[in-house]
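Hi there,

I know you've been waiting on this one. I reran it after we fixed the sequence typo, so this is the corrected version. Both the input and the resulting structure follow.
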Amino acid sequence: MNIIIVGGGKVGRALCKDLSLTDNNVTMIELRETVLERTISRADIDGFVGNGADIDIQKEAGVEHCDIFIAVTPEDETNIIAASIAKNLGATHTIARVRKPAYATHNEFMHESMGITLMINPEYEAASQIVDILRYPGALSVENFSDGVHLIEVMIEDDELSGLMISQFRQKFPNLIICAVKRGEEVIIPTGDTMIKRGDHLFVTGEQDLLANFYHVTGKKKKRLKNTLIIGGSRISHYLIDMLKDISMGIKVIEINADKAGELSEDFPEVVVINGDGSDQEFLQEERIELFDAIVSLTGVDEENLLISLFARRNNLSKVITKVNRTDLINLIEEDPSHAFVTPHQLISNHISKFVRSVGSRAHSDIEGLYRVDNNQFEIIEFHITEESELTNQPIHSLPTKLDVLIANIIRNGHVIFPTGADDMQVDDHVIIATTRKYLTSLEDILE
């Protein structure tokens, strides 16, 4: 496919690297020549220096032959205008990163009147992920798929799971599937003979109530989080406060900027907002940090967020969530089962990659969900099977599937099936695949 990306920030660079690894012709438009040159040197792409909302620049980049046009500059207005122009010049699909609530709430108008296929809000996506993690305080990460199927990441300590074989786990929890095991730097798709070890990260799929039972039986169930301390009054904080109100959670916000603190107080009069430095440990002690169940660090500085989170860990908070943009910093922090990380630019990069793969997939299966782990070492993909699929009505054991591919779940008419070799896939099923293979675009790609 022909793909044009406007904007050479973190998201734009990540998309160039990802999308250029497959059979796509990727072109970047970027105002800063040095940024463009650096991106071209690291990914197999073409590039044009200029304003992505400029008609002449778009024509020069070949937008009339573009399958997918993606605008991810820091400016909402630039992204909206660029995507609308691209659609009018002939681009088949257009995507715009839009962060301001005033724009983000008008998806239908943007689609029908301005021709924007998909609008993505990184702050909203980050807030949604934070809420999911707060709902599962024993999990390091949470992802939602169709019909109530969740994927959770848990860290194994000295508990009853340590030393179990995967086959024994299946006997104990027949309606849960361990899709992958992360051990050190390696991610593996387990077999029945794989042993669970202390320090492993397990990626488990199942329905919400069954996962809750899993938490209870294994001792990983923590008390419901009743109150949360948010450090930083960013856009993510606005969305997060709004979402947390729906689950009746007490909230206190600390914001260093007096004007921002005042705006938050006006927008959310029921929330306690303190004007102060959330990175000051003495100040946090004065605010009785130890009395909170959870803390979410959302300042604009990664290092500050990490230091705040480490201080919260020392005070034994049940859940610590840290926003980071530089994922390499995470490796500097000692692992802790209570500590989760959120990276907004990765969230929307994954979202856009899912859309691109879905557009590029063959007609017999559509990609409806995509979740990635550890720099794309491992993926969980949700496919929707159409009538053209060649894999329907055959026992799974008869399919010559590739190594490192696991059919984790089949969702049929709202019911979740944890498949054995005797089960089959049918038209209109949603099938969840776990794999360490890269860039599957169709369910048929799981076959040798």
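Quick highlight: The first strand starts at residue 2 and ends at 6.

Best,
R. S.
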